[in-house]
Amino acid sequence: TCELQQTLRHALPGAIVELLDVPGLGAKRVKALHDALHVDSLEQLRAEAKSGHVRALPGFGAKTEAHLLDAIDERLQREPQRFLLPDAAQSLRPMLERMRQVAGVGEAVPAGSFRRCRETVGDLDILVSAQDAAAVADAFVSCGDVARVLANGKTRSSVMLGNGLQVDLRVVDADAFGAALVYFTGSKAHNIALRRIAQAGGLKINEYGVFRGDERIAGATEASVYEAIGLRWVPPELREGRGEIDASRAGTLPALVERKHLHGDLHAHTDASAGRDSLRAMADAARARGLAYLAITDRMPDAGGGRTDCDWLVRQIDEIDRLNASFDDFVLLKGVEAGIREDGSLDVPDDVLGRLDLVVGAVRDGFDLPGDRQTERILRAIDHPYFTILAHPTGRLLGERDACELDVPRVLAAAAARRCFVELDGDPRRLDLPDLWCREAAKVGVAVAIGSDARCADDLDNLGYGIGHARRGWLTRHDVLNTRTLAQLRPLLARTMGGAGSASGASKRDRPKGA
Questions:
Q1: Cα–Cα distance between 364 and 453 in angstroms, integer?
Q2: Whether the Cβ atoms of residue 435 and residue 116 lie closer than 8 Å to each other
Q3: Which residues are CB-neighbours of 201 under 8 A, at least 6 positions away?
Q4: Any residues with CB less than 8 A from the CB of 24 and at least 6 apart, and which?
Q5: pLDDT in tens, 459-469
């Protein structure tokens, strides 16, 4: 980010960029539509085209207008658009700030899938407790990025933002805020289970509270709602109907990992490869975020023909040593993101790998290999004597590329036997390992490394998205590799470097507790 970029973002509606994806529209035509007809969304363009206003503009005409209508209709009929978490957060923050400035507002918080830390969201829900519901609604519909008001009532309002994201507002009394937060956080499966438990106990539960007859016996806080029906409070990230109700009743809900538990980050890049900031800048940013260590895992550039140039990595190793000598409270770990070739070999020579603290192995091509070949490829890589962490294991890119065909249980079993680790990549475009497999990794004893996969200093904040996803996977601090101090971490990394045993021969009994 930079000042100019932020200026441009504020100068143009967020959704105007999506017009460039419509066949037949380039930057000049989008500008013409915006200047002449104030078009800044697909819906607006469709309305202007149906009214015949587009054909009247220079350089368009009736034929172009008809083609645009067909293209827009095709796009709008596709699967509903979903938004990455940082994009949703960027829209959410100013709206929450606006709500909190209204006199008499007690709470203003997000609900829905955003609060549950789903990988993507289809819309946003905001819940507000306030004395003057009308004043809150007026402030909500007049937020700067609102493109269209869909509904504006006393307690419920809905708007469409310029980027196409729908935001729904609910205003409730303080006495019902906890019940409303449970209800509007969801998920549907979780809420149905709560309702059945309440009914079995002769109670009624809804967004206004828990009732025995006409008497409201709970509702001000979420904890009171759960307690009234015999349950312990369930963290929002677990409310997916995946066993959290039984665990709540039995008192076996996990103490989920938190951001404050992380001592370091085990996947970051610099301007030596895929990143934009220097070693020093990345180290300073990590220290500013309270981290005690940061693994530098730049990528090897492929020089063609399977050969690689390692001179830059050797120089980086020496530079890291010099920097570490200047720190008394922080350590840069020497690593590399080694590409996993289709035959399972790594694209970095062993003599260089042997000088590192850790090796992060990543599939960077051949994502469409059949499942058996993809699995064997990764299993061979895991068996390499210097292999430490399997990066973004399924290879998915949210909204862009599906996960590889992969036998994840076999991969996790091999990692457990080899006593190495798998990554939860906190880049919000990845969030890979998926939450269900994170839970499985913990069950088979494979520690999960939460990495930012940072390309610049600000990307170190991806750790927060990684934590949210880890919590969806029921992970505790003991299930996460980098909750360990550097002194605790070094022996775990060392055992994977230089022949800690093959996947076929290593024993789970040798694995330290919590590893």
A1: 14
A2: no
A3: 229, 230
A4: 64, 67, 68, 71
A5: 999 999 999 99
